[in-house]
Amino acid sequence: xxxxxxxxxxxxxxxxxxxxxxxxxxxxxxxxxxxxxxxxxxxxxxxxxxxxxxxxxxxxxxxxxxxxxxxxxxxxxxxxxxxxxxxxxxxxxxxxxxxxxxxxxxxxxxxxxxxxxxxxxxxxxxxxxxxxxxxxxxxxxxxxxxxxxxxxxx
Length: 154
Prior knowledge:
Elements (H helix, E strand, L loop, with lengths): L2 E2 L17 E6 L8 H10 L9 E3 L5 E3 L17 E6 L11 H17 L4 E4 L3 H4 L11 H11 L1
Parallel strand pairs: 1-4, 2-5, 2-6, 3-5
Antiparallel strand pairs: 3-4
């Protein structure tokens, strides 16, 4: 599969990540065919240094590079310094279901990341609060629908 590259203008520069302990699965909580620029804009508005995820999987399965894979992300407070984040477009807390193309692309991304970071553990964003023992980091992300599918993909 191909990862579509972008030349994002990182406002504050990026920091190379020292290690990768986690591969964190997310959902965008937006539409399944969202404009990636809109995600960039949302993250800038939230105070992030551009898109916080490393890869975004669109509803049609297209994979778009957010942050470079080797830099610190802004997607999972508590483990940003030691993780990569892949996010599926859609809101899987509500009515959306990941498309077959998204699931195929997620499987490919997870396999690709496990090749790069063989010791990294695949987790969902909602698992972070428990792992770092910080209940205030709790989230429903990536929604029950996607969360329940992840063990079958892994």
